[in-house]
Write a structure and sequence with these properties.
Blueprint (H helix, E strand, L loop, with lengths): L5 H5 L3 E4 L12 E12 L2 E10 L2 E7 L11 E5 L5 E4 L8 E6 L5 E6 L5 E6 L2 E7 L7 E6 L30 H6 L2 H4 L3 E9 L1 H6 L4 H19 L4 E10 L12 H19 L4 E6 L8 E3 L11 E5 L5 H15 L31 H12 L37 H4 L24 E2 L2 E2 L5 E3 L9 E2 L18 E2 L4 E4 L2 E3 L1 H9 L4 E2 L2 H7 L11 E2 L2 E2 L14 E2 L12 E7 L2 E7 L17 E3 L2 E4 L2 E4 L9 H4 L4 E3 L5 E3 L3 E2 L5 E2 L16 H4 L4 H10 L4 H4 L4 H9 L14 E3 L6 E3 L1
Parallel strand pairs: 1-4, 5-13, 12-13, 12-14, 14-16
Antiparallel strand pairs: 1-7, 2-3, 2-11, 3-4, 5-6, 7-8, 8-9, 9-10, 10-11, 15-16, 17-18, 19-20, 21-22, 22-23, 24-27, 25-26, 28-29, 30-31, 31-32, 33-34, 35-36, 37-38
Helix pairs in contact: 5-7
Keywords: Disulfide bond, EGF-like domain, Membrane, Metal-binding, Transmembrane, Transmembrane helix, Zinc
Pfam families: ADAM_CR (PF08516), Disintegrin (PF00200), Pep_M12B_propep (PF01562), Reprolysin (PF01421)
Membrane topology: Single-pass type I membrane protein
Length: about 725
Amino acid sequence: QERGNLSTLASMDLQVWAGCLNRRRLSQYIFFQNWGRDIICSHLSYHSYFMIFLLYSFSSTLFPYRELLPKDFTVYTYSKEGKLQSEYPDVQDHCHYQGYVEGILDSVVAVSACSGLRGLVTIGNVTYGIDPMDSSSGSKHILYPLDNVKKEPTMCGVTTEGHDGEHAGENHHPSMTQLLRRKRAVLHQTRYVELFIVVDKEKFEDFGKSETEVREHMVQLANFLDSMYVMLNIRIVLVGLEIWKYENIISTDGGAGDVLANFVQWREKNLVLRRRHDSAQFVLKKGFGGTAGMAYVGTVCSKSHAGGINVFGKISIQMFASIMAHELGHNLGMNHDDERVCHCGASSCIMSSGASGSRNFSSCSAEDFEKLTLNKGGSCLLNVPKPDETYSVPYCGNRLVDVGEECDCGSPKECESDPCCEPGTCRLRSGAACAYGDCCKNCQLLPGGTECRASNNECDLPEYCNGTSQFCQPDFTVQNGHPCHNEEAYCYNGVCQYYDAQCQDIFGSKAKAAPNICFAEVNSKGDRFGNCGFHGHDYKKCSSWNAMCGKLQCENVKTMPVFGIKPAIIQTPIRGTTCWGVDFQLGSDVPDPGMVNEGTKCGTGKICRHFQCVSASVLNYDCDVERQCHGHGVCNNNRNCHCEAGWAPPYCETKGYGGSLDSGPPYNAACAPARLTSGLGGLGQCMLISRYFINVCYLSADSMLRLVVNANVVPAPSILRYRRGVHDTETGRYRGL
């Protein structure tokens, strides 16, 4: 049976769960007619379509996609006077659906029945578009292969010669579904991207100055994104939308890099404080000479850099969805597929540098995302939307824990390997206390004090299970601006940023920062190997006071960089030393990791911020560790003391077990009374509670340790790491997968 042609599509029974589409210039298409009827079946409503075109027909049963919006989905606008306004629009008609073609494993469907039928149907490696006729009443539609949509050539700002050979045709490689089966050991945990979209004034006007039109298109967009990312076991939840109706809040002058820098700075100062989200994407009409967008790589969850910009010009919504999927992919750690051996079962993939309109992520993208998660990036993606946050009717099997559910392992097939959760009822199995979370093992809660997230470096902090929740505490770090590396650097977003460390990350353990003269001379050139970012489409020369924040310069290089993407390396001999720099050639839509890292100390009391050496006061560091933490701890990014072992939070002024109010107790609370008294009685009680977790109980005093050793209790096995959850500081609740 052939896959990916109209006859195959026409003969199939179509079962659908979410999406939307809009028509533009077509070179091939056919007409068909549909008849629709609403059906109510038990607790689940759906819509049935019967379609006829040429000599073929198929019926479709459309199930509402219920996780697309949270209940408190918020639309922000500004008045003419610039006053921020918010509203909670009623968009509860559930006209967005998603699903698959019955009988075809490698199929994805995303449609909207809001006004006629619009959507995407992917069979094998071919995607078709569905749109109502412009002049029809909604019963006549067009179906067409997306590859035949005439589109303007757009790129991510880089032209890579010879990369076509890296992506063989659709008939020579397995489909993405087959490829991802090999990755399920890593991608088995569902991730949730809480997405915020901002639309600029010019694009608002392009939609006829209609808030409703903007809102509908952005909801359709999120639906498309979700149908693409579900292949990677990533779900997209649109948590907010902001529309700039009267003026743009940031400057959109200059090049893509300038606009991106302006946007993420505005986001950090305003949006992050207003609405929780994992990534913010800026939608604007203005083009950048063929550059379709720009985003930071691997920065999802970052307060300062989790964002991207996306050009929505004269293209269809489905083409634009591919652009935003690409830029969001950069936030999720994905690099371009160019010059790598990548396969997605189609002629082009989403992370190709050219905006091709592809709906398929490649094997390279899956590996890039895997690396992000293995390097402990993207911890916020493990937040499962709370039952009262999910814009849906409770639906067992959607892998979201809805109101009235204790767990949700998905379909009966997916639940076969889940020992904790019952399929169909979404209740815990008999004897199970939990089903998921970093503090859940073998369907039981781990005892308090079990480390569930270790510290990565001196600017990161450990977190512990509290014994009553299956979820680990939120990921806390040392407050930005705290001195580190023997007070020669500052903590910044959980990392001690300094030149030597960055040189070693790129060139190996022997490398170190080059003399200042290297930075001054190389970065004054204003070319790809020495610059302070972009000014419009041109590289910006560094001034003498900003040179230390331009292209990184290293010396004592003994090894070449080992990356999936080959960087260009330049050696500049200056005054008896060789200055080494790199250009990763990731494209103009991706900031160059060969630039000096944000937060690096560039002088006394100064740090690098957006290629400028500015006062470290911008970090708002206000922790007096001697006064606030009595010299026995540091302040975390919640401005609470994290105490050293032997001192008790919240102020580290009395004896205790360390940690903070935020990190969870570094001891088993059930064992605490025994630890504060002497004798075997309390210890015996502690051992009775949890014999093989006794290692948690003997962390306090030396005398207790000796008693435990004398008792010949077998130490606990090493604790395996499972899924993470996040503590909501507003409600005091914990959330996780």
